[in-house]
């Protein structure tokens, strides 16, 4: 069965592909398992293509045929593969985390995200995150001049003991990135996410000296191995990768290559967001993940079984992903 949903965001969010004010997707249910597809153009197929793939999967005779119908449609495949893993886990009475990994952690650390703002507002937001128990804070940069962004990062670093990350979303030139990395190394910044444009993969090589290079958008238009060859950290979005199973494979490949994986959402609803928590719990000693995104939504498809508490999310211990869909989506 397929159910469509559309959820309003708490506030409009500017992205590289325009401002979004809601997230629309589908819940896919089969054999007692529930999966979610929340496509995000730029990262996944369109909503239209996603719906078409899911209808084909829904009509398929078995799970293998249903998954095959979603090949090339990562959000649709995310939904079907998750429904299958959820159904299997529930049937065995184990959590999704235990289905994915041996000995998963009971909780995962998550980072707070501070958007573009002036110096004072940035410092205040970082302090609020620390007060709420977050130990890692990611600051969005790249929307204003480099000098202004460096001043924001300097002020945030002076004001707090948090581990700081920056996310430039590909906004910088190679020259700007070199200048930024020099300055940020002195501040103890852990890493900069996507400093250069996604297609300038080689420009990232050798950039990180004291500050790590994390690649996010680059994962959409380069093979994983090529990304792992230049990155210190890779940002994995299960919705864009075609499922938590494929994201797990990517996380293990990253570790194998000496690259730290971080799991984030594409501002997904409760089913996919919680599945990503289970995934992260199965990666030993994972660093703070971008899974504190529930508050970006004004409404959801279920009560949140995995809220953020003091900078961590506890993995639900009910069988499967542990999300009980509560709305007639
Ligand atoms: Mg990013």
UniProtKB/TrEMBL annotation:
<feature type="region of interest" description="Disordered">
    <location>
        <begin position="308"/>
        <end position="329"/>
    </location>
</feature>
<comment type="function">
    <text>Converts 2-succinyl-6-hydroxy-2,4-cyclohexadiene-1-carboxylate (SHCHC) to 2-succinylbenzoate (OSB).</text>
</comment>
<protein>
    <recommendedName>
        <fullName>o-succinylbenzoate synthase</fullName>
        <ecNumber>4.2.1.113</ecNumber>
    </recommendedName>
</protein>
<feature type="binding site">
    <location>
        <position position="193"/>
    </location>
    <ligand>
        <name>Mg(2+)</name>
    </ligand>
</feature>
<feature type="binding site">
    <location>
        <position position="216"/>
    </location>
    <ligand>
        <name>Mg(2+)</name>
    </ligand>
</feature>
<feature type="binding site">
    <location>
        <position position="167"/>
    </location>
    <ligand>
        <name>Mg(2+)</name>
    </ligand>
</feature>
<dbReference type="InterPro" id="IPR013342">
    <property type="entry name" value="Mandelate_racemase_C"/>
</dbReference>
<comment type="pathway">
    <text>Quinol/quinone metabolism; menaquinone biosynthesis.</text>
</comment>
<feature type="active site" description="Proton donor">
    <location>
        <position position="140"/>
    </location>
</feature>
<keyword id="KW-0460">Magnesium</keyword>
<dbReference type="InterPro" id="IPR010196">
    <property type="entry name" value="OSB_synthase_MenC1"/>
</dbReference>
<keyword id="KW-0456">Lyase</keyword>
<dbReference type="GO" id="GO:0009234">
    <property type="term" value="P:menaquinone biosynthetic process"/>
</dbReference>
<feature type="domain" description="Mandelate racemase/muconate lactonizing enzyme C-terminal">
    <location>
        <begin position="119"/>
        <end position="214"/>
    </location>
</feature>
<dbReference type="InterPro" id="IPR029017">
    <property type="entry name" value="Enolase-like_N"/>
</dbReference>
<dbReference type="InterPro" id="IPR018110">
    <property type="entry name" value="Mandel_Rmase/mucon_lact_enz_CS"/>
</dbReference>
<feature type="active site" description="Proton acceptor">
    <location>
        <position position="237"/>
    </location>
</feature>
<comment type="similarity">
    <text>Belongs to the mandelate racemase/muconate lactonizing enzyme family. MenC type 1 subfamily.</text>
</comment>
<keyword id="KW-0479">Metal-binding</keyword>
<keyword id="KW-0474">Menaquinone biosynthesis</keyword>
<comment type="pathway">
    <text>Quinol/quinone metabolism; 1,4-dihydroxy-2-naphthoate biosynthesis; 1,4-dihydroxy-2-naphthoate from chorismate: step 4/7.</text>
</comment>
<dbReference type="GO" id="GO:0043748">
    <property type="term" value="F:O-succinylbenzoate synthase activity"/>
</dbReference>
<dbReference type="InterPro" id="IPR036849">
    <property type="entry name" value="Enolase-like_C_sf"/>
</dbReference>
<dbReference type="Pfam" id="PF13378">
    <property type="entry name" value="MR_MLE_C"/>
</dbReference>
<dbReference type="GO" id="GO:0000287">
    <property type="term" value="F:magnesium ion binding"/>
</dbReference>
<dbReference type="InterPro" id="IPR029065">
    <property type="entry name" value="Enolase_C-like"/>
</dbReference>
């Amino acid at each position: 069965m397929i159910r469509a949903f559309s959820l309003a965001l708490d506030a409009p969010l500017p992205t590289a592909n325009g401002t979004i004010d809601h997230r629309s997707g589908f819940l896919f249910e089969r054999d007692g398992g529930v999966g979610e597809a929340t496509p995000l153009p730029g990262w996944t197929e369109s909503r239209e293509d996603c719906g078409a793939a899911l209808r084909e999967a829904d009509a398929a005779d078995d799970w293998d045929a249903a998954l095959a119908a979603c090949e090339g449609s990562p959000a649709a495949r995310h939904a079907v593969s998750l429904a299958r893993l959820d159904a299997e886990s529930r049937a065995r009475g184990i959590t999704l985390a235990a289905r994915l990994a041996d000995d998963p952690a009971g909780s995962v650390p998550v980072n707070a995200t501070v958007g573009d703002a002036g110096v004072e507002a940035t410092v205040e937001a970082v302090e609020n995150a620390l007060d709420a128990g977050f130990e890692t804070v990611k600051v969005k940069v790249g929307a204003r001049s480099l000098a202004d962004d460096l001043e924001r990062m300097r002020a945030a670093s002076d004001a707090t003991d948090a581990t700081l990350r920056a996310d430039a979303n590909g906004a910088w030139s190679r020259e700007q990135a070199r200048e930024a990395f020099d300055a940020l190394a002195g501040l103890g910044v852990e890493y900069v996410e996507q400093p250069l444009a996604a297609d300038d993969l080689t420009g990232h090589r050798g950039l990180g000296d004291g500050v790590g290079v994390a690649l996010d958008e680059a994962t959409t238009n380069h093979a994983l191995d090529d990304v792992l060859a230049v990155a210190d950290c890779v940002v994995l979005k299960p919705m864009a990768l075609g499922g938590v199973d494929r994201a797990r494979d990517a996380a293990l490949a990253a570790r194998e290559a000496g690259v730290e994986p971080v799991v984030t959402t594409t501002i997904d609803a409760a089913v996919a967001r919680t599945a990503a928590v289970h995934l992260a719990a199965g990666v030993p000693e994972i660093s703070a993940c971008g899974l504190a995104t529930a508050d970006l939504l004004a409404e959801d498809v279920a009560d949140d079984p995995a809220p953020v508490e003091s900078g961590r999310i506890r993995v639900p211990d009910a069988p499967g992903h542990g999300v009980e869909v509560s709305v007639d989506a």
